[in-house]
């Protein structure tokens, strides 16, 4: 089984949650002795990371899921790599693999809430990154026995608070209570509620600073809201960053105000760093967080954000307690080794 050749197919080239998942899973599978290969539509951040880690990849033709040249290119990639199993990531890739391939068995990973099952109809199994994602899939009629939940994982050694003081000095945060959030600036991530909560928090915690890490279409909208609420001086919008682990190390409280999530790898990274975390009841966050290791709140609830942040801001021992417990949870329940083992079990089941 260790001679297994796996072709991962993904339709994007950045290094967001799904792309980071592919990279991490490839590294885990290499460590197990599998022969891994990735098909992606063009060079970019992901291909650079694959090269850095000596993971083979093939560039397929970019285009929509029914673009004839894109499908032709993917078909050729499958023939050239000659995999024992294909692992498609997200809807587009699953749909394209289903269209061009009938000979090689295929596993797909659903990284977000599923709204229609057609892309998965030719897959032998669908891995879901959270119970919520699996529920959305099965409620649409997909056979439950052909699906399972495997949570994402993080390389926990990459995250710590060892260089905290130096980074806080570099960023000018020495005297601030830093509340950070790593997410794309889009409505589903809920930063609007964090900014609304900030307008109330500054009256009680005047040294608070909300740090939003990530970019997206809502940047101007969020900046305008911050100006309207007179909190622009308490916010830093840092955009997409390559030093997220450093910025997390310099954080006091991590807030994920998402309205909708699939898994939320950034939340797990915050836990692995050893931060006191506040997260909403969506995606896999309730699987990561409980009363012993953080604060779980309803989505789109400004008052709940205010209360949770205040509770942590005013209680340093509680922050430390949650931070330590969160790190233990990340290290034990969401380890890369467990993810690799569980994924291999799915491959074995599919291959018979």
Q: Given this structure, which CATH class of the largest domain is correct?
A: Alpha Beta
Classify the beta-strand content into a percent band.
15-25%
What is the total tally of β strands?
Answer: 13
Element order: H for helix, E for strand:
EHEHEHEHEEHEHEHEHEHEHEHEHHH
Helix content: 40-55%
Enumerate the spans where pLDDT stays under 50 for 5 or more consecutive residues.
none
User: How far do the termini sit from each other?
Assistant: 11 Å
Shape: elongated
How many structural domains are formed by the residues?
Answer: 2
Q: Please give the largest β-sheet.
A: 7 strands, parallel
CATH H-level superfamily title of the largest domain: Glycogen Phosphorylase B
Rg over CA atoms: 21 Å
Q: Which key phrases capture this entry?
A:
alpha/beta; 7-stranded parallel β-sheet; Rossmann fold; 352 residues; 2 domains
Summarize the structure.
This protein has 352 residues and is of the alpha/beta class.
Layout of helices and strands:
Blueprint (H helix, E strand, L loop, with lengths): L4 E6 L6 H15 L3 E6 L4 H8 L3 E4 L8 H14 L3 E5 H11 L5 E5 L14 E4 L2 H8 L8 E3 L14 H8 L5 E6 L8 H11 L6 E6 L5 H10 L6 E5 L4 H6 L3 E4 L8 H9 L2 E5 L4 H4 L6 E3 L4 H12 L2 H18 L2 H16 L1
Parallel strand pairs: 1-2, 1-4, 2-3, 4-5, 5-6, 6-7, 8-9, 8-11, 9-10, 11-12, 12-13
Keywords: Transferase
InterPro entries: Glyco_trans_1 (IPR001296), Glyco_trans_4-like_N (IPR028098)
Organism: Sulfuriferula nivalis
Description of the molecule:
The protein has 14 helices and 13 strands. It is elongated, with a radius of gyration of 21 Å. It folds into two domains: 5-153 and 335-351, Rossmann fold, CATH 3.40.50; 156-333, 3-Layer(aba) Sandwich (Rossmann fold). It has a seven-stranded parallel sheet, with helices on both faces. It has 352 residues and is of the alpha/beta class. It has helices at 17-31, 45-52, 68-81, 90-100, 131-138, 164-171, 191-201, 219-228, 244-249, 265-273, 285-288, 302-313, 316-333, 336-351, and strands at 5-10, 35-40, 56-59, 85-89, 106-110, 125-128, 147-149, 177-182, 208-213, 235-239, 253-256, 276-280, 295-297. The longest helix has 18 residues, at 316-333.
């Amino acid at each position: 089984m260790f001679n297994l050749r796996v072709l991962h197919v993904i339709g994007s080239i950045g290094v967001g949650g799904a792309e980071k998942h592919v990279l991490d899973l490839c590294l885990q599978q290499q460590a197990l002795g599998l022969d891994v290969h990735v098909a992606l539509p063009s060079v970019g951040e992901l291909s650079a990371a694959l090269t850095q880690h000596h993971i083979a990849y093939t560039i397929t033709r970019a285009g929509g899921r029914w673009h004839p040249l894109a499908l032709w290119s993917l078909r050729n990639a499958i023939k050239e790599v000659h995999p024992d199993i294909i692992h498609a990531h997200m809807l587009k890739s699953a749909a394209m693999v289903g269209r061009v391939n009938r000979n090689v068995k295929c596993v797909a990973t659903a990284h977000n809430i599923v709204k229609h099952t057609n892309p998965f109809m030719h897959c032998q199994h669908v891995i879901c990154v959270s119970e919520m994602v699996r529920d959305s899939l099965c409620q649409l009629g997909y056979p439950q026995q052909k699906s399972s939940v495997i949570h994402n994982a993080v390389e926990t050694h990459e995250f710590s608070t060892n260089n905290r003081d130096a980074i806080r000095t570099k960023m000018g945060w020495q005297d601030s209570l830093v509340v950070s959030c790593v997410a794309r600036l889009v409505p589903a991530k809920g930063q609007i509620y964090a900014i609304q909560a900030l307008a109330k928090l500054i009256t009680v915690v005047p040294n608070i600073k909300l740090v939003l890490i990530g970019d997206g279409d809502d940047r101007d909208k969020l900046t305008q809201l911050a100006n309207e609420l007179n909190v622009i001086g308490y916010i830093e919008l840092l955009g997409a960053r390559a030093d997220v682990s450093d910025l997390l190390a310099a954080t006091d409280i991590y807030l994920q105000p998402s309205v909708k999530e699939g898994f939320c790898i950034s939340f797990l990274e915050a836990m692995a760093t050893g931060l006191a975390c506040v997260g909403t009841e969506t995606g896999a966050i309730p699987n990561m967080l409980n009363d012993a290791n953080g604060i779980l709140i309803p989505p789109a609830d400004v008052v709940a954000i205010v209360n949770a942040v205040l509770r942590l801001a005013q209680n340093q021992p509680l922050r430390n307690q949650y931070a330590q417990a969160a790190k233990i949870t990340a290290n034990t329940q969401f380890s890369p080794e467990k993810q690799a083992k569980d994924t291999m079990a799915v491959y074995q089941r599919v291959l018979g």
